[in-house]
Amino acid sequence: MIYFNGQSRKKKLETESFNTIGVVEKLKPNSKKGRTTRKDVVYFYFVKNDTVFHKLTDLTNNGIKRLGIKTNECYELKVVKSDYGIFEIDFNKKIDTIIDKSEYKTQKYNTSIHRNIIE
């Protein structure tokens, strides 16, 4: 079942996706994953149809430091058109541009806890 879901997500990214820019807004290095393991969390957003969508992705521990990720940096992002929860951000392809989220009225978060962390 896990294999099928992974293959389905990968196929959607290849066929039904659009490219956009993801802007890093917050970094959480060395956060708890479980009792003994740790991970790095990257909070980012992208703009589609005058709406800002806030997302997050997990990296391995020390992934932020290893990749040299900093806040307010932009990276290439691929998002599935039918489900914005399926995305792939490439932290190796940095883009020199600036997108200000305060210019947009509509902001969409995953949960209210996610909104409180960002604000």
Structure explained in plain terms:
The chain is α+β, with helices and mostly antiparallel strands. Helices cover 22% and strands 47% of the residues. The chain contains 3 helices and 6 strands, in the order αβββαβββα. The protein has a 6-stranded mixed beta sheet with strand order 5-4-1-2-3-6. The longest helix is centred in the N-terminal third of the chain and has 14 residues. The model has no long low-confidence stretch (mean pLDDT 88).
Task: Show the helix and strand layout.
Elements: H1 2-15, E1 17-32, E2 38-48, E3 51-60, H2 63-67, E4 74-80, E5 87-95, E6 106-108, H3 112-118
Order of helices and strands: HEEEHEEEH
Average of pLDDT: 88
Unreliable segments (pLDDT under 50, ≥5 consecutive)? none
List how many beta strands DSSP finds. 6
Essential attributes:
alpha+beta, 119 residues, 22% helix, globular, 3 helices, 6-stranded mixed sheet, single chain
Provide a short characterization of the protein structure.
The protein is built from three helices and six strands; from the N terminus they run αβββαβββα. The chain has helices at residues 2-15, 63-67, 112-118, and strands at residues 17-32, 38-48, 51-60, 74-80, 87-95, 106-108.
